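sry for the spam today, last one i promise. C-alpha cells for design, 241 residues
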C-alpha cells in the first residue's frame, strides 16, 4: 500500500514538472509578413496610402536614355500639392527626377533595364487581345471579355468585364481584373514589363473608380500563387475633380 502511494506521488510530481516545463516554453514565433508593396505617382497626392516612413527602399521606373525603361533607386520628396483646388499631402518629385511611378517592397531587385513589352493607353474591348513579349521569353497574351455590352445614353455599359493574362496560344487566360462599368472612364493597360525581375510579365492598369476618379493598380507575377499569372499587390487612388 505504501509503495502504491509513493508511486502515485512520484507520477503526480512528474506530471507537475512536465506541465511546468511545457508552460515555460516560449510560444512559437510567427513568420514576419512580407513587406507591403507601395505605389506612388510623382506629382500626385498620397490618397489613402500610408505615408512613407523612410525605412522603405523605393525604386523608380524611368524612361531610359537609350529607349525603353530602367529601374533606379529613388529618393522621395514629399510635401503639399494642390489638387482639385485643395492642398493635400503628395509626392512632389523624386531624386533622380522624372520617374514614371515609384514602388517599394519589391524585394531583392537591382537597378538596371526593366524589360518592357507595352507602354501606352490601351483599352481592350471584349474579344480583343494584346500580345506581349519580354526579350527572348515566350510571348504572353492579355485578353478581355464581358458577359454583355449594353448601349445606354451615356455610352456602352460593360457588364462583368474581365481582363486576363495567359501564355500566347490557345487556352483560358488567368483573370486578374473584374468589374462592371460604363461612361467615359474605361480601364486601360498602361505598362506591361518585368518590374520584379523574375522573367515574367507584370501589369500596370488604370481602372475606373467612383465618379471620374481612377485607380492605378499594379499586378506582379512574383507574388502570384500557381497557377495564377499575376496578383494585385498595390493600388494608387487618383481622385477626379
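last one done:
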Amino acid at each position: 500500500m505504501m509503495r502504491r502511494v509513493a508511486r502515485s506521488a512520484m507520477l503526480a510530481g512528474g506530471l507537475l514538472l512536465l506541465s511546468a516545463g511545457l508552460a515555460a516554453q516560449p510560444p512559437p514565433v510567427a513568420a514576419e509578413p512580407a513587406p507591403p508593396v507601395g505605389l506612388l505617382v510623382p506629382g500626385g497626392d498620397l490618397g489613402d496610402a500610408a505615408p512613407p516612413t523612410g525605412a522603405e527602399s523605393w525604386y523608380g521606373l524611368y524612361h531610359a536614355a537609350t529607349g525603353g525603361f530602367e529601374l533606379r533607386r529613388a529618393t522621395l520628396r514629399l510635401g503639399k500639392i494642390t489638387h482639385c483646388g485643395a492642398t493635400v499631402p503628395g509626392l512632389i518629385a523624386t531624386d533622380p527626377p522624372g520617374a514614371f511611378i515609384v514602388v517599394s517592397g519589391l524585394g531583392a531587385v537591382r537597378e538596371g533595364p526593366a524589360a518592357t513589352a507595352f507602354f501606352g493607353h490601351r483599352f481592350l474591348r471584349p474579344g480583343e487581345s494584346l500580345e506581349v513579349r519580354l526579350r527572348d521569353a515566350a510571348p504572353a497574351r492579355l485578353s478581355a471579355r464581358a458577359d454583355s455590352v449594353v448601349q445606354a445614353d451615356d455610352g456602352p455599359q460593360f457588364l462583368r468585364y474581365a481582363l486576363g493574362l495567359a501564355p500566347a496560344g490557345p487556352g483560358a487566360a488567368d483573370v486578374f481584373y473584374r468589374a462592371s462599368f460604363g461612361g467615359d472612364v474605361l480601364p486601360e493597360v498602361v505598362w506591361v514589363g518585368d518590374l520584379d525581375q523574375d522573367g515574367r510579365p507584370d501589369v500596370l492598369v488604370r481602372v475606373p473608380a467612383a465618379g471620374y476618379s481612377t485607380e492605378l493598380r499594379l499586378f506582379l507575377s512574383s507574388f502570384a500563387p500557381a497557377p495564377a499569372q499575376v496578383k494585385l499587390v498595390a493600388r494608387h487612388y487618383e481622385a477626379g475633380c
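The chain has two domains: 33-114, 115-241. ok im logging off now
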